[in-house]
Write a structure and sequence with these properties.
A nine-stranded mixed β-sheet has the order 3-8-9-2-10-1-11-12-13, with helices on both faces. It has a two-stranded antiparallel ribbon with strand order 4-7. By secondary structure, the protein is of the alpha/beta class.
Length: 291
């Protein structure tokens, strides 16, 4: 099984749209599983036309502070040491009140409490939607106000990998979040190949370089797709020169096309909405296969 992660650095460059079409084309000749690891804003299942998940599971990948009231002596050490302002004080009971929306589960209050009156309790901080068609899709979603997105991504990837082994899949596609933070690093680790999506703008190019640093850190071979390349042909030429000088493989250049927007509105991948794009994505697959 080959694990391929798609990332971009910058958001809004068309990563999920490209992932959806790439997945559909791969699935014609291969068994595949998809993991949407953009747990703050998962949209891949929507792009693939999934309107309802077959199953939804809770994920416990975070901890919150819980008070053992009978042990509390009201010393206020927890209150004075909480840097997230997650603790207020109940004057009547002379005991702390924990705000679980603010608590980051850092454990400081547990450490400073002289009576062991505070414990960290594992809580459900996310959910994963599972769809079986058109192929197994695992879509993670962080609960509102919760943290621990990197840990959630780890859990989703683990579930997707188990399914991939179960069905003897040829490919596991991982759709990463934008940026270069913890959830992106969790998405990238353990991958066999990375596709970095970019577009011809200074901000996208700068974020490409930052995403590339992560991929290189983990010694993962990679290539790039320049989306909407013809919107700024001069800047595209500048990017191509950089890629050539640094031996970075350009997997494909995709032109700007209003049909991509129409396809998204209709919750349909572009290779289904407009069959003429099948050949373009076949070329990408051919280049990935020899990488």
């Amino acid at each position: 099984m080959k694990k391929i992660v798609l990332l971009s650095g910058k958001g809004g460059v068309g990563k999920s749209s490209i992932t959806a079409s790439l997945a559909l084309m791969l699935s014609k000749k291969n068994k595949i599983v998809i993991a949407d690891c953009d747990v703050d804003a998962p949209n891949l299942a929507l792009v693939l036309g999934v309107k309802q998940f077959d199953e939804i599971k809770g994920i416990e990948a975070a901890e919150k502070a819980v008070l053992i009231e009978e042990k509390c002596i009201g010393c206020k050490k927890c209150l004075n040491n909480c840097v997230f302002s997650a603790i207020s004080w109940d004057k009547e009971k002379n005991k702390p009140i924990f705000d679980h929306m603010r608590c980051e589960g850092c454990g400081t209050c547990e450490i400073v409490c002289p009576e062991n009156a505070i414990k960290l309790k594992r809580i459900e901080n996310a959910k994963v939607g599972i769809a079986e068609k058109p192929f197994p899709i695992f879509s993670g979603q962080l609960n509102i106000g919760e943290s621990g997105s990197g840990k959630v991504v780890f859990n989703i990837k683990q579930m997707a990998e188990e399914k991939a082994k179960e069905i003897d899949a040829d490919y596991l596609l991982i759709d990463s979040a934008a940026g270069i933070g913890c959830p992106v690093i969790a998405s990238v680790t353990g991958s066999d190949y990375a596709i970095i999506i970019t577009e011809p703008s200074p901000s996208a190019f700068n974020d490409f370089k930052r995403a590339m640093q992560i991929v290189k850190h983990f010694n993962i071979p990679f290539g790039t797709i320049i989306n909407k390349w013809d919107l700024n042909k001069e800047f595209t030429e500048k990017m191509e020169k950089y890629f050539q000088e640094n031996n970075i493989k350009i997997l494909e250049k995709i032109p700007y096309d209003r049909k991509f927007v129409d396809a998204l509105v209709n919750l349909t991948p572009i290779v289904v909405y407009n069959k003429s794009y099948e050949q373009l994505f076949e070329k990408i697959i051919d280049k990935i296969s020899v990488s």
